[in-house]
Write a structure and sequence with these properties.
Helix 1 packs parallel to helix 2. The chain folds into two domains: 97 residues, Ribosome hibernation promotion factor-like (Double Stranded RNA Binding Domain); 79 residues, 2-Layer Sandwich (SHC Adaptor Protein), CATH 3.30.505.50. The chain is 30% helix and 39% strand. It is an alpha+beta fold.
């Protein structure tokens, strides 16, 4: 597994990097079958340290955790506990859904845009009806089953996930509804 351990405007020592690799490696090897890489970012927010961890698995799933503490090691330990709890909850479901998958999930490239919000007065008429593009990024669309897509959305804590349905070979969307249920759009 590849580790990327960095700090935003703070220095990360070799001892902390070693501690992160050992502790996170134990958690991931215990609960996840095929992790590919881990990204750990430390930052400072006023008097607290913040630790954000993202783990990508070859099954296409991404697990994320974030924790705050007054000491940097305590922030990492709290984040590691959250990650362990999250992976433990999904271990049984991950094994059931991915037992037959021999190859990693296929990812397809797509463009992602951030559009400017229209917060001007209603009386102001826009010059054109074209939205203003604030940012353009490259994103990946995974090829998953519906069950895997729901798990991916829940693990990432995202409100919506666009995926390529591997059974029907078309783009689908799963989303969290206001009533707490999951919606699935299959055009």
């Amino acid at each position: 597994m590849r580790y990327q351990i960095s700090g935003k405007q703070i220095d990360i020592g070799a001892a902390l990097q070693t501690h992160v690799q050992v502790a996170l490696g134990e958690v991931v090897s215990k609960y996840a079958q095929r992790p590919t890489d881990a990204n750990v970012v430390f930052s400072r927010s006023a008097h607290e340290y913040v630790c954000e961890t993202t783990i990508h698995m070859s099954t296409g799933l991404t697990a994320q955790a974030k924790a705050h503490a007054t000491e940097i090691y305590a922030a990492f330990e709290a984040c590691c506990e959250k990650m362990e709890k999250q992976l433990r909850r999904y271990k049984r479901r991950l094994k059931d859904h991915h037992r037959e998958r021999a190859q990693p999930v296929e990812l397809f490239g797509a463009s992602s845009y951030i559009l400017a919000s229209n917060e001007s007065d209603v009386a102001d008429e826009p010059d054109s009806l074209q939205p203003i593009i604030v940012a353009e990024m490259e994103t990946k669309i995974p090829s998953l089953s519906v069950g895997e897509a729901v798990m991916q959305m829940e693990l990432a804590g995202a409100p919506v996930l666009v995926f390529r349905n591997e059974n029907k070979d078309g783009l689908n969307v799963v989303y969290r509804r206001d009533d707490g249920n999951i919606g699935w759009i299959d055009p």
